[in-house]
Write a structure and sequence with these properties.
- By secondary structure, the protein is of the alpha+beta class.
- 34% of the residues lie in helices and 12% in strands.
- The longest helix has 24 residues, at 127-150.
- Bound molecules: calcium ion (4 copies) and zinc ion.
- One calcium ion binds next to loops.
- Residues 1-30 form the signal peptide.
- One of its GO terms (molecular function) is hydrolase activity, hydrolyzing O-glycosyl compounds.
- Residues 534-695 form the CBM3 domain.
């Protein structure tokens, strides 16, 4: 398989761009551009980002027509040290032997680590953002489930939660005693993956290796394992009513992962992309949810236990030295530091003034609402437009997570000023801001349109700049957001202002659900969402004239696979060039007097095998119409492939050639520059998928494999050779005598009977 790294043919690019844009019905960008905003629609759309970022088999045919199965190689990650090829695991041979029985119970030599979500605009499955995202989505659902029900998105959310949590279950390897021996927290390698700006469906495992990173006793990653434990504990709570067996599996695994995380302490690897600060927050996040799920006090003890002199020995010791001390959280619930979520759930359990203070102070810090101590003026900076910015790289995600915390606070202790603040910030995100831009993609017609996201952008040239406009709308994605001056840059290349990521949308979904509950009652989601994208030419041929005179016609055909619903490779493409040789026949020549010359076969260079020329075959022999078939079968193609060839008549006995291209069907409309050529039809495995064949098609006569108008022993010999795979140059339709779609010995037997007159 091959993707060309750069597109060299300007004209071809322009042609394709003209065909492919614009793709969308604008009616779905129905969201308001000024307040009051429709939170039902904003929440509805926000979920679709997770459909866009699903990884693995089982995607094709889902909610987004432009997403298909990807990275299916994750189902079989080889059980071997990854080595310098980055294929396999982060474990040594000795470690693999130690854990072999647990890692590979079916003994097929590999691990199944499919599923989960692509991290952002890239396709690595990074551990901390993955578990943060799935746990925080579950948290939002746990707190505001009715909102999802009321906008008819409960089933959708359940699908997303299962997709994520099932991946965490699959990534957990336990022994017979139910003890975790290994937990896979990362599949893929940032420094490899990030070189390939292409849709995930086009990932070629030989080029973009996806090693797997496992936590074990020897290689602890308690931040990663605890994050997953938290998510699975929440998932238990979300599913225990409707699916108790599944929920029990989640809880059992959550407990085991937590034990594993507590026993083997340390932080995991990310290749520098998501450096982990420490693990006590994820351990607390898991512990607090396990307490809610089981009622067992020991989990809370693990967080808040103290020594005889009141010094914290539990996880809180990371941030607070003793029970005499308080803490002010100047960060937020985020992929690296989940203390925001921890105190939101811990304060109602411990119910100490100190823990409520920590929970509340953080929301006051974010919102600018006066702290209880009137002398405390420690607040987060605001943009001139009123948006609170913690960090300019993805500012909106932190803000949305802070909104979620404020909305959850209000569930315990009604604080309308907190929820009003959250709504105010959400309104800024949805378009009420100095840029007059919505930071939710696809929400309204003022939404950001160029998120840094490979699948939605759909480049065929491995370039963020090609095409200029995204092929698909990344419905509901929260882009990075504004900087401290309310400025935002809506450019595909800009991953600071305009990246999207699973952790960005996690707090956003929960916050929208909370805001819908308080401010969106009566609002309606969109019907029939998402809209079908407009059809575009996925397969076609272009051609240009290279040279033509009385002795030849020389052209280049460029065959295209521009598939996008979803994008995929094709390895059985064919094209047919039809022509009329009546001028040769009138001069006493036949099809035997025509030669095919090949000047350039791009596929041979890019894909290895190259084009097989078949024929010429008679199409309408009475009128002298023939065709040659250019067969790319065996070359896995995405994008386009050029084939430069010539039809060259031989000279007759008088040293004359007889060549008149003006009556040649496929020659019509071909000029010096590339243009799309309806008369050079394109086929997939023999079935026409583009263009038109000459009128007056004469059905190929069954048995006349070489198209010479006779059914005779030559055809029999050809068919026998074809079945023995000695020859492939036959008319398949004619060879399929019993018309069952296969050419095999049954056809040979039938042809024999025909020849024997039986
Ligand atoms: Ca296996
Ligand atoms: Ca952490
Ligand atoms: Ca002709
Ligand atoms: Ca024949
Ligand atoms: Zn994938």
């Amino acid at each position: 398989m091959g993707i060309k790294r750069f597109v060299r043919k300007t004209i071809a690019v322009v042609t394709a761009a003209a065909l492919l844009s614009p793709l969308l019905a604008s009616s779905a960008y129905a969201g308001p551009t000024v307040p009051p905003f429709n939170y039902a629609e904003a929440l509805q759309k926000s979920l679709y980002f997770y459909d866009a970022n699903k990884c693995g088999p089982g995607i094709t045919g889902g909610r987004l027509e432009w997403r298909g199965d990807c990275h299916v190689e994750d189902t079989e990650v080889p059980l071997k040290p990854m080595g310098e090829e980055f294929v396999g695991l982060n474990l040594s041979r000795e470690e693999i032997e130690k854990y072999r029985a647990v890692l590979d119970p079916d003994g097929n030599g590999s691990l199944d680590l499919h599923g989960g979500f692509h991290d952002a605009g890239d396709h690595v499955k990074f551990g901390l953002p993955q578990s943060y995202t799935i746990s925080t989505l579950g948290w939002g659902f746990y707190e505001f489930r009715d909102s999802f029900k009321q906008i008819n998105e409960e089933e959708h959310m359940i699908d997303i939660l299962k997709w994520g949590n099932d991946y965490l279950l699959r990534s957990t390897f336990m022994n017979d005693r139910g003890e975790v021996q290994a937990f896979c927290y990362q599949v893929g390698e940032g420094n490899i993956d990030h070189n390939w700006w292409q849709p995930p469906e086009l990932n070629e495992k030989a080029k973009v290796q996806r090693p797997a990173y496992l936590a074990t006793a020897e290689r602890p990653a308690s931040d990663q394992a605890a994050g997953a434990a938290a998510s699975l504990a929440i998932n238990y709570l979300n599913f225990k009513e409707k699916e108790p067996v599944y929920a029990a599996t989640c809880l059992k695994t959550a407990k085991a992962l937590y034990e594993f995380a507590v026993k083997y302490r340390g932080c995991g690897y990310s290749g520098g992309f998501y450096n982990s600060s420490y693990e006590e927050d994820e351990l607390s996040w898991a512990a607090v949810w396990l307490n809610i799920a089981t009622g067992e006090e020991s989990y809370i003890e693990d967080i808040i236990s103290v020594s005889a002199n009141g010094m914290y020995t539990g996880f809180l010791g990371r941030i607070i030295s003793s029970t005499e001390n308080g803490w002010q959280n100047i960060w937020v619930h985020s992929w690296d530091t989940v203390w925001g979520g921890v105190f939101a759930k811990l304060a109602p359990i411990t119910n100490t003034e100190r823990d409520w203070y920590i929970f509340r102070w953080n929301i006051e810090y974010w919102s600018g609402i006066q702290h209880e101590n009137p002398n405390d003026t420690t607040f987060l900076a605001s943009t001139p437009g009123g948006f609170r910015v913690l960090n300019t790289w993805g500012s909106a995600r932190y803000n949305a997570a802070a909104q979620l915390c404020a909305l959850v606070y209000n569930k315990y202790q009604p604080r309308k000023d907190f929820t009003d603040w959250a709504k105010d910030q959400m309104d800024y995100i949805l378009g009420d801001n100095p840029m007059k831009r919505s930071y939710e993609v696809g929400y309204s017609d003022i939404s950001a349109k160029h998120p840094h996201h490979r699948a939605a952008h759909g480049s065929k040239a491995l370039s963020m700049l090609n095409p200029l406009e995204h092929r698909h709308t990344l419905w509901g994605a929260l882009v990075g957001g504004p900087d401290g001056t309310d400025k935002h840059v809506d450019e595909t290349t800009d991953f600071v202002y305009n990246e999207v990521a699973i952790d960005y949308n996690a707090g956003f979904v929960g916050a929208l659900a909370g805001i819908y509950e308080s401010y969106g009652q009566g609002q309606e989601p969109l019907k029939d969402f998402p809209p079908k994208e407009e059809d575009f030419l996925e397969f076609y041929s272009e051609a240009k004239l290279e040279q033509e005179n009385a002795e030849r016609t020389q052209i280049t055909i460029n065959i295209h696979n521009e598939s996008g619903k979803p994008p995929h490779f094709e390895d059985k493409l064919q094209a047919r060039y039809f022509f009329n040789i009546s001028e040769m026949i009138e001069a006493g020549q036949s099809i035997e007097d025509l030669k095919i010359e090949i000047m350039y076969d791009e596929s041979k260079i890019v894909d290895g095998k190259g084009v097989t020329i078949k024929g010429p075959f008679a199409w309408n022999e009475a009128e002298g119409v023939y065709y040659v078939e250019l067969d790319w079968t065996g070359n896995s193609i995405y994008g386009d492939r050029e084939f430069h060839f010539a039809l060259v008549p031989k000279m007759d006995a008088s040293w004359l050639t007889h060549w008149d291209p003006s009556d040649d069907w496929s020659r019509k409309g071909i000029i010096k520059e590339y243009s799309i050529t309806q008369n050079i039809p394109v086929y997939r495995d023999g079935v026409k998928i583009f263009g038109s064949e000459p009128e007056g098609e004469v059905q190929s006569e069954k048995g006349d494999l070489n198209g010479d108008g006779k059914v005779d022993s030559i055809d029999y010999s050809l068919l026998r050779r074809y079945i023995l795979e000695l020859d492939s140059d036959i008319n398949i339709e004619a060879a399929d005598l019993n018309s069952d779609g296969n050419v095999n010995s049954a056809d040979l037997a039938m042809l024999k009977r025909v020849l024997l007159g039986m």
